[in-house]
Design brief:
about 140 residues; globular; alpha+beta
Length: about 140
């Protein structure tokens, strides 16, 4: 698999993640790292990063790591635990690592940290691998 092509595809595959300002930084087999800077539009009513920002970042990291298997997939289950809040200007990074690569079900653990390495949250994402290959 051409990981540079996959990186470019995952960077531009979704208008939603593009609008969220998520950047794909690294991809290798069973792994991905994505990042996002927290801006004013990302805040909840109490001035902290909205929970949906963390979840979206983690889901995109897991989906990108899943794509390294070369097949299309859909999320069938996800759990995410919130530990700390991010503030405007913080740089968040989500790293996804493959736990299990099955014929149909694939599982990834994701950790979301800030620019200081503080753990903001973590999650487990399970994907159903479709029979259709990813066409780059």
């Amino acid at each position: 698999m051409d990981f540079e092509k996959l990186k470019a595809f995952r960077q531009n595959c979704s208008r939603f993640t593009e609008r969220m300002g998520i950047t794909v930084e690294e991809i290798r087999p069973g792994y991905s790292r994505v990042s996002k800077s927290i801006g004013e539009d990302d805040l909840n009513p109490i001035g902290r990063a909205h929970g949906g920002v963390y979840f979206t970042l983690a889901d995109h990291a897991a989906g990108t790591a899943m794509a390294t298997c070369g097949y299309l997939a859909v999320t069938v289950n996800a759990t995410y635990n919130y530990f700390r809040s991010a503030n405007p200007g913080d740089q968040l990074t989500a790293e996804a690592q493959e736990v299990k690569a099955g014929k149909t079900l694939c599982v990834f653990d994701v950790r979301v940290t800030d620019q200081n390495g503080a753990l903001l949250g973590s999650g487990t994402f399970t994907f159903y691998r479709l029979e259709e290959k990813l066409d780059l």
